[in-house]
């Protein structure tokens, strides 16, 4: 090969390698695009301040900014570090995201150090993790930051759930010039297609609060809490999914989260290490299909669905009693009551194998039908006692292991607010609806979920006990002497004190329940039919909407003088109405 030939060969080889490199780069993963939006929120109130003699123009933080530093520096907020200035801002409602600070020109161009503490309550924002006995944590999301602020610039911090932020100077020998502070709200920009409005403003606010609670948790995946428990807890997802169906329709966050938890859970393991959570995964898959009829999606999970059902069938003794291992969990308040946990798990097993029978038809697996029928009959022979526990009793009624009216009369309607949890309260409401006790269920919604709103909540909490409300201060006020600090003083299990999440999606049950039972809207036939059967209870009128795969159903129901209900119904094309 002569020189020219060699040169041509090298050039060709180089071109070939470059082509390969470009091709390889084109096939490399590019990460993912964030479809959420960022909205900047101005503080609504200055809740508390100290070292006021070292603060000027603090009220300017209540004026909307533009996120841009400038050379003019009009009406800047001044913080004199020698006076130990600190203050707490209230952004008006629970948010997911962080904080943006814009600075002006201050003496000495070296950055100035401050401390920011985020809180879901004023109490949490005012407590530092380093404080003796403080129960606040940085678990899952950092809520406490020390950071350097630039001269004439901007900085952003945080990725948590909060409503309040405490700002305090760390550098005591500097004077800080601040232009603005905004909360960064990060959320999915999706319309509220579902709605609920009645002559009872308390129920209206509760419906909206439940919807907003879940909306905040619809982040990268469907989380249970935006401060803590920023994970896919598949059992916790069930009430959230029911709320999403009633408010937002078929959002991608649900299948995305179901796919994730299945992909990281190899059989015979239980999802999240909890046997009931694997059962809830099956129930959610079934309900999602019934609502939207996406057979192609369901078929992707066919092998896992039947593999999981077969694994569950090995956890039954000769008398039909469940013998599930792993984490045996329903909800937190039920945990110490082993008899109740068993009753709940037995009920879930019955519910799951009823669903399994339907899967054999939907997914064309007739060879398993006889086996599942036999398993179901075996399970139905063992009927446990709920041992006085409302959560377990509700599942016994829903699974039809016990008579719905007897369950309601003996356990659910007695001392109705005692033993209700934010998670399984949804199933208590469902069981009371099965017994036709709509007024009793609505009273529980008003009194139990409404009590959180009375205490300043803008989202529903991980747990709540009515006894906590006695002599309790509001979460949006500085804890007062002689008053109970409801965030710091209560909580249990993994959510003691300030670790307690005040935005937990599993607590949204009333939103789904009111849409289903009071508006009376249920979807059937894989999303192709709707049944309208309102139950107004003690309401005079109710109106609202419900998203379906064919469009939005709109209804208005109004009681007539003689007691009947007049309904105006708007049905989208393609959706059949069932009698």
UniProtKB/TrEMBL annotation:
> Alpha-L-rhamnosidase six-hairpin glycosidase domain spans which residues?
193-381
Q: Where is the Alpha-L-rhamnosidase C-terminal domain?
A: 530-574
Any Pfam family: Bac_rhamnosid_C
Q: Which residues form the signal peptide?
A: 1-26
Q: Some GO term, biological process aspect, for this entry: which one?
A: carbohydrate metabolic process
Q: Which UniProt keywords apply?
A: Signal
The record's annotation in InterPro entries points to:
6-hairpin_glycosidase_sf, 6hp_glycosidase-like_sf, Bac_rhamnosid6H, Bac_rhamnosid_C
Q: Which PANTHER family match?
A: ALPHA-L-RHAMNOSIDASE C-TERMINAL DOMAIN-CONTAINING PROTEIN, C, PUTATIVE (AFU_ORTHOLOGUE AFUA_3G02880)-RELATED
Q: What is this protein called?
A: Alpha-L-rhamnosidase-like protein
Q: Which organism is it from?
A: Marinoscillum furvescens DSM 4134
């Amino acid at each position: 090969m002569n020189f020219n030939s060699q040169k041509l060969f090298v050039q060709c080889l180089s071109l070939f390698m470059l082509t390969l490199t470009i091709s390889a780069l084109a096939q490399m993963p590019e990460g993912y695009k964030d479809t959420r939006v960022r909205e900047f929120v101005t503080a609504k109130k200055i809740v508390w301040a100290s070292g006021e003699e070292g603060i000027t123009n603090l009220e300017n933080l209540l004026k909307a900014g533009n996120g841009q530093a400038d050379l003019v520096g009009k009406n800047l907020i001044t913080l004199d570090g020698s006076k130990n200035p600190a203050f707490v801002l209230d952004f008006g409602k629970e948010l997911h995201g962080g904080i943006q600070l814009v600075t002006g020109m201050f003496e000495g161009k070296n950055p100035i150090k401050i401390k920011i503490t985020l809180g879901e309550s004023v109490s949490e924002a005012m407590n530092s993790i380093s404080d003796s006995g403080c129960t606040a944590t940085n678990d899952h999301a950092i809520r406490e930051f020390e950071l350097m602020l630039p001269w004439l610039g901007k900085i952003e911090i945080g990725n948590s759930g909060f409503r309040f932020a405490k700002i305090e100077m760390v550098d005591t020998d500097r004077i800080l010039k601040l232009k603005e502070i905004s909360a960064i709200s990060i959320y999915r920009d999706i319309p509220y297609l579902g709605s609920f409005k009645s002559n009872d403003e308390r129920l209206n606010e509760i419906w909206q609060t439940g919807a907003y609670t879940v909306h905040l948790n619809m982040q990268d995946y469907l989380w249970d809490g935006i401060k803590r428990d920023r994970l896919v807890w598949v059992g916790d997802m069930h009430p959230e999914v029911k709320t999403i169906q009633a408010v937002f329709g078929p959002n991608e966050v649900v299948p995305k989260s179901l796919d994730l938890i299945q992909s990281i859970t190899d059989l015979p393991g239980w999802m999240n290490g909890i046997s009931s959570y694997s059962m809830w995964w099956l129930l959610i898959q079934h309900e999602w299909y019934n609502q939207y009829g996406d057979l192609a999606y369901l078929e992707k999970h066919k092998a896992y669905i039947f593999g999981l059902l077969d694994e569950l069938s090995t956890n039954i003794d000769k008398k039909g009693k469940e013998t599930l291992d792993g984490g045996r969990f329903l909800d937190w308040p039920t945990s110490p009551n082993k008899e109740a946990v068993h009753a709940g798990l037995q009920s879930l097993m019955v519910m799951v194998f009823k669903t399994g029978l339907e899967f054999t038809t939907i997914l064309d697996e007739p060879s398993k039908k006889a086996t599942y029928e036999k398993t179901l009959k075996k399970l139905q022979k063992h009927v446990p006692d709920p041992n006085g526990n409302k959560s377990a009793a509700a599942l016994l009624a829903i699974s039809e292991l016990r008579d719905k009216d007897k369950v309601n009369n003996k356990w659910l309607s007695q001392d109705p607010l005692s033993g209700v949890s934010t998670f399984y309260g949804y199933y208590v409401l469902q069981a009371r609806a099965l017994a036709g006790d709509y007024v009793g269920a609505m009273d529980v919604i008003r009194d139990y979920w409404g009590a959180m709103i009375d205490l300043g909540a803008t989202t529903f909490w991980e747990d709540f006990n009515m006894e906590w409300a006695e002599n309790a201060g509001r979460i949006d006020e500085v804890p007062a002497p002689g008053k109970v600090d409801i965030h710091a003083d209560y909580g249990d299990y993994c959510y003691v004190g300030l670790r307690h999440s005040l935005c937990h999606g599993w607590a949204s049950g009333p939103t789904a329940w009111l849409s289903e039972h009071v508006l009376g809207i249920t979807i059937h036939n894989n999303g192709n039919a709707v049944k309208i059967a309102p139950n107004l209870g003690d309401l005079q009128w109710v109106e609202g909407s419900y998203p379906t795969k064919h469009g939005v159903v709109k209804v208005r129901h109004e009681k007539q003088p003689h007691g009947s209900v007049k309904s105006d119904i708007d049905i989208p094309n393609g959706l059949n109405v069932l009698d």
